[in-house]
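Researcher: Let's try something more involved. This one mixes different molecule types, so please make sure each is placed in the same coordinate frame as the others.
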Amino acid sequence: MAKKNSDKKDSTKKQKKGSKAKKVRIGVVDTMFARYDMGQAACDELAICPGYNKTFKVVTQTVPGFKDLAVAAMNMIEEDGCSIVIALGMPGSAPIDKQCAHEAAQGIMQAQLFTGTPILEVFVHEDEASDPKVLASVFENRSRKHARNAYWMLFEPEQLRRRAGQGIRQGFDDAGPLQLK
Amino acid sequence: MAKKNSDKKDSTKKQKKGSKAKKVRIGVVDTMFARYDMGQAACDELAICPGYNKTFKVVTQTVPGFKDLAVAAMNMIEEDGCSIVIALGMPGSAPIDKQCAHEAAQGIMQAQLFTGTPILEVFVHEDEASDPKVLASVFENRSRKHARNAYWMLFEPEQLRRRAGQGIRQGFDDAGPLQLK
Amino acid sequence: MAKKNSDKKDSTKKQKKGSKAKKVRIGVVDTMFARYDMGQAACDELAICPGYNKTFKVVTQTVPGFKDLAVAAMNMIEEDGCSIVIALGMPGSAPIDKQCAHEAAQGIMQAQLFTGTPILEVFVHEDEASDPKVLASVFENRSRKHARNAYWMLFEPEQLRRRAGQGIRQGFDDAGPLQLK
Amino acid sequence: MAKKNSDKKDSTKKQKKGSKAKKVRIGVVDTMFARYDMGQAACDELAICPGYNKTFKVVTQTVPGFKDLAVAAMNMIEEDGCSIVIALGMPGSAPIDKQCAHEAAQGIMQAQLFTGTPILEVFVHEDEASDPKVLASVFENRSRKHARNAYWMLFEPEQLRRRAGQGIRQGFDDAGPLQLK
Amino acid sequence: MAKKNSDKKDSTKKQKKGSKAKKVRIGVVDTMFARYDMGQAACDELAICPGYNKTFKVVTQTVPGFKDLAVAAMNMIEEDGCSIVIALGMPGSAPIDKQCAHEAAQGIMQAQLFTGTPILEVFVHEDEASDPKVLASVFENRSRKHARNAYWMLFEPEQLRRRAGQGIRQGFDDAGPLQLK
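Model: All components are placed in one shared frame. Result:
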């Protein structure tokens, strides 16, 4: 139980850094390619978070496909001053789509490291569900949950700490924790 | 419906940056390896976009194969002042070709992040259609559609926003959006 | 037996660099996604290492999933002054999970190279054991062993040297060394 | 037919940059691992290009295996002043060899982006032909063709432009272009 | 036979750079995970190279596993002044081990490009031989051969040039060259 004595990282630092005179900015970037308006779902969730348009505001952009997300997210951080970005896309179901998703995800990973700023990759694979209505609900749920995660990362990191190792999922039900004995 | 209130990113910024005295530049780089003149198709589409050779002009280059696209595109941005580049290539159908396509795509991804500038990767895989005429039409259509996307990204970002989550495709018919209920 | 004459790298350098007035910091970053509180296990092990809260202290953070570990670890080094970070996560068992694990691991690799600082990637794959209790013990054991490795790397590098080529494992039993003859 | 009106990128820029007082340099790096003297084939082709040892000269190096090509090529650019490098290697036929080839190719890709200079990756996979004599001819032909490509990229870019989309190959016969109708 | 007239890259440059007042340094980094003391084998070979402890000396470090090699090797170059590093590790035989080996190898590749300095990746895959004694001999032989390669790269590059395209192997017998006719 040593953890309670450990130093808590001050996750509001980036928030402060960006909030001199203007509001903290959260970026939302989505694609024409996806078959669901993931960006809208993320924006809807952010709109019901505390401080919407007061403490923070939302910047949006749409790009052609998921491979275009990384540089767009990077520019939202470096040029638009976003403190975090939610990058939403839908890889298709063919093998080559998996490879493309890999390239897109690697780009998002690198953009985070180049900027030192989190970019939440929110991908729904077209083959995660065969029923279009189920798939649509995965799009809606995962986009909203990660928008909430972005909010927590900036403003309520203790919400994340509280759920450490709890098998939390976005899009489907939580998996729950395992027991040692 | 919170999105309508959100901040729209000003996508014409790069355009302005590059347009002090000279025209905005759009780069088109293609290969000897491809079995279709993809660069010509992209140039043909750009030639019918508003402002061609007035607001913007096109810079072209041809390299041996698709692995040579990334550094060429990067140099078109850094040395020739392009605000966006369309990188066109054709991976073959063997397993090793998929791996090479992966390397080429990763390079294009990194070139974007190194320059902070979009490079639209336009790849037509040789095995996307068995009928040569169908394949040729995929080459023509995808090259043109992405050239149009490049134009939109610089000059009409609202065209992209309007199509967010609509299952838009290049080369084949659009997939269309899914319904939540 | 030439090695005994070779130069021993002074592994306490980083320690000194970070310890002017304040304690050396060890970072522990874990996820909500994992089904075991890996961060707690790592912290428990560090709490029984010599010098805990005297020579060194522990900084913790929780992120949503394992793809969020890399930039978080990087920031714990660059902003919080950690001399080493333990990054703990659980990839799922589906093929796409392996791909995501690959992306997460590549990010952690790059974060190390960008910072010049070790980040110990501690991943337990959900399919390493079918019995939940066995899997839980792998989580506990591997998290603790790598926490101890982190401590050794900073303060007792001779512990590592002594075990070179000995087939040491974390999570399962050691494999042991092979004999030439 | 808009392309004819477009701006031609001046590909001789790098040449000029490097040719103040001294000759342009073309790098050739090969391996001990390959089963054919690819570097010699490339050098033989360059020796019959116009301006050999007048306009340009050739710098050579041999490394152990193809994973050692990337940093060697990078240093030939940054330390020896090469304007382009031809990197020649032979991946083996086992699955692990394909993975190693992937790593080597990624390194060559990154070296290009780090230096802003083309490095032509010339790999002959050991399983491209079962007949040793056929395989040897692939080695010879591909090494020479890419050496010629390197020369064209620096001195005669119109040779590349003229062949855009023509299905040009190195090592085997050209595939030729597809027809739209 | 044009090659004989070409410029030979002066491979002793790095050596000179590092040898103002102090000896050239060769780094050797190995792991606890491997089942053979690869670092010792490399050091034994270096100890019988000309100039050992006169012209050059050896710096060693041991890390937990092969994913920890890249940043360690990078620091041996940047902080300890090594002119080349030999990075030795043993990936396991499961599919996930191949993926981890890939990540480790990519890291070593990037570390080379970040530092502009060669790092010889010496991996022995646990499934290269089923007989433990044969496998042990692969460990010993490959580690020694690459240590010798490192020495040649710094001090006798003509040894490499002489073997270009000769199908040289480490760990197993040489494959030999193919004949064109």
